[in-house]
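Consider today's protein:

***
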Amino acid sequence: MKNFSKITLSVLIAASASLASCSNDDDKPVEKATIYERLGGSAMVSDPDNSGQMIEKGRLSFRKVVNSTIGLIVADIQSNASGNLQAHFAPLLAETGNTQATNIAKLSDNLTDFFSFNTGGTNAVNTYSGLNMVAAHDPAKNPRMGTKASSADYTKFEGYVGAAANKNGVASNTELYTDIVAVLESLRTPIVQK
């Protein structure tokens, strides 16, 4: 009978420890999906820009926002409005012929890599190997950067990213939009150098 009591006691202790650990798991906050996952993650979809090829949906979402942002910046520069971002992108836009389109495509790909990698994209295609943010935005270290950015310049850039996100289905009043803005704000200090 003593063996039965020891066994019963052991089972009760093990069961209570198991229940206690389950209740501790319930107290933990549910981990939020990464921005990349919320933009579609690693689910493969047809690439609308490359017939017959597949692309991760999260990467495609970022590429659409990046390309829309680049389009807004180019339109801003072409408008000759005061306070436009012409000075920052002048070296890139001064490149002529086929190289300009190629280099803008490289910029798009590099930015897509950067955002995909830094928001949860784990596939090797999302590896960012470009310059760090300080060097990338310093004309002395990156000849494709025309001038250093001021806080106002960066705020304008953030506005273009926000407008591009809206254009591509990310509404301003969502948690996803707020999280994207938080990522951009985390980059303000190394990018703003003026």
About this structure: The chain has a mean pLDDT of 79. The beta strands are 44-46, 54-56. The chain has one domain: 35-191.
